[in-house]
Write a structure and sequence with these properties.
- The structure is a single chain.
- 38% of the residues lie in helices and 14% in strands.
- The chain has seven helices and five strands; from the N terminus they run αβαβααβαβαβα.
- The relative contact order is 0.14.
- It has a single domain (30-177), classed as Rossmann fold, CATH 3.40.50.450.
- The protein has 184 residues and is an alpha/beta fold.
- It has helices spanning 20-24, 48-63, 71-74, 84-97, 111-122, 139-142, 162-176; strands spanning 28-32, 67-70, 100-103, 127-132, 150-155.
- 5-(hydroxymethyl)cytidine 5'-(dihydrogen phosphate) is lined by residues 32-37, 71, 75, 81-82, 87, 91, 110-113, 116.
Length: 184
């Protein structure tokens, strides 16, 4: 019997299990969330505590083999803020091309993220929303599952929600493919 060889080399940051992107046969993920409201007015940058959930999610999904598109990182956490005419076009195009859309709608609501959630759902993308426990979300976020493929992931801290987030991504992608029925 010949010894088996892994299809791809493992790296230090790769998860022990099969990376989710490969398992699902997808590659790109758009990560949306509050931006302007998180900028420190004095520096124009996102302070470290505001960056960390995004940095964690980016690292997590990249470790799972996704090509992650995220404006906060692209715009250097505020240091290279794009003009509206520039970022709007790029974000819509990246969402159009994405295999999965993940967002923190924000509480208070992020206006830009809500537009992006509208685009992603209208494009028929698998949508996963991270909803902080104890916060209120607008009716159209609460009801989006009636018109789009949406999975909600309640969280208290983002790190603790990663296993539920992966399960939600898996469900959303398979639901869009029509291989499992939507949750009741
Ligand atoms: O309205 P708010 O800034 O919270 O909107 C955030 C969302 O809009 C992010 O998900 C990001 O993809 C997009 N955005 C961007 O790409 C927003 C701004 C500033 O509003 C920006 N680039 N400069």
């Amino acid at each position: 019997m010949t010894p088996s060889t892994p299809a791809t080399p493992t790296t230090a940051s790769a998860p022990a299990t099969a990376p989710l992107a490969r398992e699902l046969g997808v590659s790109t993920l758009f990560l949306a969330g509050p931006f302007l409201q998180l900028l420190d007015p004095a520096t124009g940058r996102m302070p470290e505590p505001s960056r960390s959930p995004f940095a964690l999610l980016i690292e997590h999904f990249e470790g799972h083999g996704f090509d992650v598109h995220n404006a906060h990182r692209r715009e250097a956490w505020g240091a290279e803020l794009m003009a509206p005419d520039e970022c709007t076009r790029i974000d819509q195009e990246e969402i159009r091309k994405a295999d999965v859309f993940v967002a923190l709608p924000g509480a208070p609501a992020s206006p830009g993220t809500h537009i992006e959630i509208g685009w992603a759902s209208a494009f028929g993308k698998p949508v996963v929303l991270l909803l902080e426990r104890g916060r209120d979300y607008t009716f159209l976020v609460q009801g989006l599952n009636t018109v789009a493929t949406v999975e909600h992931v309640p969280y208290t801290d983002v790190a603790g929600a990663l296993p539920a987030l992966d399960a939600a991504v898996r469900r959303a992608v398979t639901r869009v493919r029509g291989t499992v029925p939507p949750a009741a």
